[in-house]
Design a protein that fits this description.
Blueprint (H helix, E strand, L loop, with lengths): L2 E19 L5 E21 L3 E5 L11 H13 L4 E7 L10 H16 L5 H12 L5 H4 L2 E6 L3 E4 L7 E5 L7 H10 L9 H7 L16 H7 L1 H16 L4 E4 L6 E5 L2 H13 L4 E7 L1 H8 L6
Parallel strand pairs: 3-4
Antiparallel strand pairs: 1-2, 2-4, 2-5, 2-10, 5-6, 7-9, 7-10, 8-9
Helix pairs in contact: 1-2, 2-3, 5-7, 7-8
The structure holds cytidine-5'-monophosphate (C5P).
Cytidine-5'-monophosphate binds next to strand 2 and helix 5.
Length: 302
């Protein structure tokens, strides 16, 4: 196999609770991850020595600091491979948008090169390497609806996979994740000792009721970090709620805002209304664990 082309999917956080700070400087989280079929394309081409990357997006580095390169280098060291690879990334996932694009690209490179170089670690074997690359990378080895604990790198698939339509709004304001977490730390209001995620998980996932309690603890901090986002979010939320979103929330540390809909029609109407208001809105479907695994291994479409 000379060339391998794989989709690299985005995620949204259906809920995100920040439980406290950890000794390693990270935060203890409780979150529900959900993959959607919005994706970048990752192409891997064999080459003799070097690991190189090319990406068409101006905010993505084309050098060794790119997380996809670091993933390839880490795997190469681990498996003592002396071959190189040319990585090409075609971006569709908003960059620094809270949709996990960089982490997803890194996980996709791990999965692709494990196959291309015939290492045979598999997704379980890649997990340890994935954790060293970033908190969200292990989740992208799994996909679907999953509970994320610890730094977000301890992931457990949920028994019932969420199915629906997601309208993703990119306000075009890249946000730095560490900066949003710092704002969160500086906020004076302590978190209420409640867990909407526990409530959500412990009930029928498709049941009414549990959805409306889901929140993102980083939302307020992101809006303080980016006042321009705060101005847009009111408008975005209003449209999503009016069109019947079961959940309207910031994804991760932002700045992407999304609405979750059970029905395609409502999602379509919300997308049109947002576009008419001059906002950059796209529509995606959720990917279950099984759909993700099939599509992500490049063997069959979602
Ligand atoms: O692991 P990753 O490099 O994706 O994380 C980016 C940044 O997000 C970290 O440097 C940290 O500031 C913040 N973060 C955190 N707690 C987490 C995950 C991320 O503080 N659980």
């Amino acid at each position: 196999m000379k060339t391998l082309r794989l989709p690299s999917f985005a995620k949204v956080n259906l809920g995100l609770e920040v439980l406290g700070t950890r000794e390693d400087g990270y935060h203890e989280l409780r979150t529900i991850f959900q993959t959607i079929d919005l994706h970048d394309d990752v192409v891997l081409r064999r080459q003799p020595r070097d690991v190189t990357v090319r990406c068409d997006h101006p905010l993505v580095p084309n050098d060794a600091t790119n997380l996809a390169v670091r993933a390839a280098e880490a795997l190469r060291r681990h498996a003592r491979i002396d071959e190189g690879v040319a990585i090409e990334i075609r971006k569709r996932i908003p960059v620094a948008g809270g949709l996990g694009g960089g982490s997803s690209n890194a996980a996709t490179v791990l999965v692709g090169l494990d196959r291309m170089w015939k290492i045979g670690l598999g997704r379980d074997g890649l997990h340890r390497l994935a954790r060293t690359l970033g908190a969200d990378v292990p989740y992208f080895l799994l996909g679907g609806t999953a509970l994320g604990l610890a730094r977000g790198d301890e992931v457990y698939p949920l028994w019932r996979q969420v199915k629906g339509h997601v309208v993703v709004v990119d306000p075009g304001i890249p946000l730095s994740t560490p900066a949003v977490f710092r704002r969160k730390d500086a906020a004076l209001t302590p978190r209420k000792n409640s867990s909407s995620i526990f409530y959500f998980v412990s009930r029928d996932l498709e049941g009414e009721g549990a959805w409306r309690f889901l929140t993102n603890d980083l939302e307020e901090a992101a809006l303080v970090e980016a006042p321009a986002l705060a101005r847009q979010v009111q408008r975005i939320r209003a449209v999503l709620v009016r069109e019947g979103a079961r959940l309207a929330a910031l994804s991760g540390s932002g700045s992407t805002y999304f609405g979750f809909f059970s029905e395609a029609d409502r999602a379509r109407r919300a997308q049109s209304a947002l576009a008419a208001a001059g906002l950059q809105a796209s529509r995606a479907r959720t990917l279950s664990l099984d759909q993700y695994r099939r599509a992500h291994s490049g063997r069959r479409g979602p």
